[in-house]
Structure formats: structure tokens, C-alpha cells
Amino acid sequence: MITQTHRTQIEQDGYTVVRQMFAPEEVETYRDHFMRLRRDGSYAGDFAGIDANETDPLKAYPRMIHMHRWDDLSLRWMLDPRINQALTAFLGSEPFAVQTMLYFKPAGARGQALHQDNYYLRVQPGTCMAAWLALDDCDEENGCMQIVAGSHSWPVLCTVGADLSQSFTDVTVPIPPDADVRPVVMQAGDVLFFNGQLVHGSYPNTSQSRFRRSLIGHYIEGDAEQVGRWYHPALRMDGSVVELEDSPGATQCGVWVERDGTQVIEVAGLNVVDAAIHD
Ligand SMILES: O=C(O)CCC(=O)C(=O)O
Which residue of 65, 103, 119, 151 sits with most ligand 1 atoms within 8 Å of its CB, as the best mutation to test the pocket? Predict the structure, then answer.
């Protein structure tokens, strides 16, 4: 299932898509399951976004987080052998699993401004990796993922305020005007894998009636010693708990400066280390 092309792309661009990793019947099971859970109640960590008002579609469909802590299907998906096989191929050893999320992103919903996941997870040493399963076909109309190819080689960047009319989270990272921002068009059942330093996010769902649902797992390298407190307990891919230390958080982040007419990143002291839970 994992080819040399996938490995090369993840090394060079920081992301790759494994097509049809999950069968249509599995995708339908996940879609039905999470729609039922959403209808049936609210759960710890539900997040409709900063400034969600009564007419915001995310009010009715807030994002779910850490479902694997109370939902067996989510736990089984997070530890699925196919995902483990892919991540092990990309990272060189078996990862630890630290987070699940479900984005419903109904028609009209805001996206999530460009960011880097390791700003939040603060993995030491190494970084994190995401597995993002499309539960619907997704394209630019319904707010597919957008990635900045090659940005996984950047350090963690200092954040600035995001445009809350476009993003349900409040921080973003500045990128140079010539950055290669690419939409990742996917079919339901495809899985996007991406490096925790990669700048990524999504724009609003501008469709009239289409959801853009996705089931997401976050993983960290198997030799990591620290991760942010929010992500404990980390699990081995057999489901057993692994004791890791809390990561104190970065003390430095990168800012863009111009040198000889070119934009380069300079790493400076970090003023705000309170990376909250909005990844
Ligand atoms: O699904 C999205 O729109 C954003 C997801 C994301 O940023 C993530 O999985 O880290």
C-alpha cells in the first residue's frame, strides 16, 4: 500500500496521500457513527470555534476531540494496522498515538487558518505526524485541506492573529508571497499524511449543501520523550499507555526577514508559549 512515491513525497514535500486506504463501507460506518454521536449529545472538548454566533454552522456541528478516550470505534481507528504500517514506513519506527479529532465542516462553515501542528504538540525530540481520513469527497468548493509544500523543513514559526471571518481558530502563521500553497483534492477513503512542521489548514466550505467531514489522528515519533500535557496519555500502537514527560514548550520561534531580497526565517525568542488546544 505504501510505495516509494509516497515515501519520496513525504520526504520532499512533507505530505502524501494514500488513495482509498479505507473502503467505502468503512467510510460510511464512520460517517454514520459520528453523525449519530453528534446528534446524541455534547462531549468534553467540543469546539465550535472562536466567535461562533447563533447562525454559525459550527454551532450545530462543533469539532470533536480525543474521542478515542471514550469511543471504542475511534480508538480502533486510531490504532488501525494500515495507519500504523504507513506511519512506521514514513517515520522509520512505530509511532505513539496522542490525539483524535472529527471535523464536520458543514456547508458555510469557516476553515482553519494555516498553522503547524507541532506548535501545539511540542514534541521533543522530533515532531508529530497526522493521518487525515476524508469521510467525504473534498475539493476547493467544500474547503479541502491546503498545504504549503516543503514547509516541513521550517522551524516552528511565531504566530499572528487569524482572520476570524475565514477561520474558526484565532492564530495563523505568516508565509511569504511566493509560498507553494496547494489544495489537496481527495476522495472519501483517501488518507493524507503530513509532517507536524508542515504549514497547513483549510478555507471555508463555500458549497450550498456539502459536508466536508474528516477523521484525524495525531501521532508522535516513537523515540519522543516529551509532548504537551494536553496529549497525555500517549498510546503505543498496541493500545498500551506509554509514560512521557510534559513538554515545557518552545522558547523560540521563527520569523520571516528579508535578506538580500529573499525571505528567510530567523529564529527568535518566543514571547507567548501558551499554545492552547486549537490545533
Ligand atoms: O481539517 C481541517 O480543516 C484542518 C485540520 C488540521 O489542521 C489538522 O488536522 O491538524
Answer: 103
Mutate which of 132, 168, 218 for ligand 1? The one with the most ligand atoms within 8 Å of its CB, which is 132
pLDDT of amino acid 270: 57
DSSP class per residue in 35-81? HHHHHH---TT-B--TT--TT-HHHHSPBEE-GGGT-HHHHHHHT-H
Beta bridge partners of 63: 47
pLDDT of residue 252: 85
C-alpha pair distances (Å), 23 with each of 27, 82, 184: 6, 12, 20
CB 219 within 8 A of CB 127: no
- In the sheet with 200-202, reading across from the earlier edge strand, the strands are 112-115, 200-202, 145-148, 181-184
The finding on whether 201 has its CB within 6 A of some atom of ligand 1 is: yes
Residue whose CA is at the smallest distance from ligand 1 atom 7:
201
- Round to whole Å and give the CA distance between 145 and 38: 22
How many residues belong to the chain?
279
Structural domains of the chain sorted by starting position, each given as residue range(s) with its CATH number in brackets:
4-269 (2.60.120.620)
Residue in the structure block whose three cell numbers are 487569524:
162
On whether the CB atoms of residues 214 and 132 are closer than 8 A, the answer is yes
Prior bond to 233 cis, omega within 30? yes
The answer to whether the CB of 85 falls within 8 A of the CB of 95 is no
pLDDT at 248: 85
Nearest atom in ligand 1 to 111's CA: 3
Average pLDDT, the chain: 94
Using the mean position of ligand 1's atoms as its centre, give its distance from the Cα of residue 113 in Å: 9
